Amino acid sequence: MTIGDAPDAPAAFRRAVESLRGTEVRPEIELEDIPAPQRLAPYSAAIGASVYRDGDELAIGRLILLYDPEQQRGWDGPFRLVAYVRADMEPEITSDPLLGPVAWSWLTDALEAHQAGYAEAGGTVTRAVSEGFGNKAADPVTTELELRASWSPRDDDLSGHVAAWCDLMCLAAGMPPLPPDVASLSPRRREDPESFRK
Predict the structure, then answer these.
(1) I need a surface site. Which of 51, 87, 119, 158 has the fewest CB within 10 A?
(2) What is the arithmetic mean of pLDDT over 182-196?
(3) Which residues pair with 93 in a beta bridge?
(4) Is the pTM for the entire model greater than 0.70?
């Protein structure tokens, strides 16, 4: 039994987990339940995602739900979401000095577009360049964007937050968000029975 389903887990946490699991996403995104960190809060759950186009993985991410009925310093309420997104990018994009503010706005704009109320948001945007040396000198230079963020959702319905996180991954992968009048399909999902543990 997962902690999100456990009868002794608080009802608000169980509702939040169900909304985390049940959000529909666009077909290019594959979701899976992943183990959650167990020492950050009394209750936690997590999902992972990959964005694919033509069989190529363009971006990956994790979204972690933390729940502490006593709250924690820096939180605004009993819930906290922690997001991570990594995507390969062209070198000319990662060298743009405006990339950090633009990438951060992808997150905040997506949260607002999905009417996902939040508070106390913070995070970092990192650009990484990997070069090979020695017997890896022939490897191509790669450039990546990493965004790490956390925020406090206003209630226990996290569907808008999951949708915003998925939009962020798609934007990082170079895919524009779906227009509002286009319905998304059910996600491909892999279940991990060890996830959603206390």
Answers:
(1) 119
(2) 41
(3) none
(4) yes
